[in-house]
Structure formats: C-alpha cells, structure tokens
Amino acid sequence: FPFFLDALYDYTKGNFTVTGPNATALIFSTYPAPSVSLLGGFFTEFTATVMLLLGILVIHDEKNNEALKGTQALLTGILVLGIGVGMGMNTGYDINPSRDLPPRIFTAIAGWGIDVFTAGHYWWWIPVTAPILGSLAGVLIHKLFIDLHNQSVPDSGNEKGEPEVQTS
Predict the structure, then answer these.
(1) For the chain, which residues make up each domain, given as ranges?
(2) What is the distance between the alpha carbons of residues 77 and 106, in angstroms, rounded to a whole number?
(3) Of the candidates 12, 50, 52, 102, which lies 20 to 30 Å from 96 by C-alpha distance?
C-alpha cells in the first residue's frame, strides 16, 4: 500500500488536493460533478439507492416469481452496473454510506486534510444520508406496492400442483 501513496506523491509532487485538475481525493470518495447542486446530488443518490433496494428485493422475492437460483448475484451486478452507467457521472453513485465515509476519513488523515469534508459545499453528508433514506424508501415502496399484495404459495404436498381431496 505505501507504493500507492508514493505514486500519488510523485504524481501530485506532494500536493494532495481535493479539487482542481490534479485532484486525487476522488480516487477514494465521491464528489459531485461541478454542475450538480446539493439538492440535485441528494436526489440522485436517494433515487439510485431506491432503485438498488427495489431491484434487490424483487430479485430475491420468493412470493413474486424470484430470479432463478444462482443468477441473483449476476442480476444484482447488472443492476449496480445499470445504476452506475445511468447515474454515475453526477455523483459517483455512492449508494452505500460505508463506501464513502471511511475512505473520506482516511483521506483526511492521510494528507488531504479537512478539505475532503468542505469540498463541494460540504458535500460529505450527501453520500451518508441520502442512501440511508433511499434504502428506507425503497423497502417501504416494495412493502406497500408489491409485498403486501402477494400471497405465499401454499405447499400442497403433491408435485403436480393439483388440489388434494380429503376423504373421511
């Protein structure tokens, strides 16, 4: 790992910056595109996380014709790729607070300083709060519009799915 910081040190000539043409802090954490406002960034992260949770819940929903066994990981990867391609240029599609906050703390300690928390008009709180609220909203939407309306398939005990006739 020290060789990586040495390469960064050589690239920046010892001047670790958060913004500008030679900014390297964005290697570790997400920062908004210059044209993205705080509200726009919050909405992007919130929406991306709602889409992620809805997709994962649908992929694994046994009551709603779940995905074939063994394909869930592939489908989840395709889902994350789709979210990244569709929304990644705005904010780096953080969609998970643990993907942004610990690396941001690391960069603050490793030489980038407090600028990692003040850059982008104090952007740091967006990748922490928007995914949490987006995940709650995604689960709520799934529960209200999908899960509550599906009934479990009862086990009939026979393989053909025909109703059993009970005799006395």
Answers:
(1) 2-146
(2) 27
(3) 12
Cβ-proximal residues to 101 (8 Å cutoff; 6+ apart), any chain? 124, 127, 128
Identify the burial level of 96 via C-beta atoms within 10 angstroms of its C-beta, where 0-12 means exposed, 13-18 middle and 19 or more buried: middle
> What is the pLDDT tens value at each position of the chain, 168 positions in all?
567 878 888 888 888 999 888 899 999 999 999 899 999 999 999 999 999 999 999 999 988 888 899 999 999 999 999 999 999 999 988 899 999 999 999 999 989 999 999 999 999 999 999 999 999 999 999 999 998 888 776 655 555 555 566 665
Q: Which long-range contacts (CB under 8 A, 24 or more apart) does 124-129 make?
A: 124/29, 124/100, 126/32, 126/38, 126/41, 126/42, 126/45, 126/91, 126/94, 127/29, 127/30, 127/45, 127/91, 127/92, 127/94, 127/97, 127/99, 127/100, 127/101, 128/97, 128/100, 128/101, 129/42, 129/97
**Whole-number Å distance between alpha carbons of 103 and 131:** 16
Q: Which helix (H) or strand (E) holds 100?
A: helix 97-107
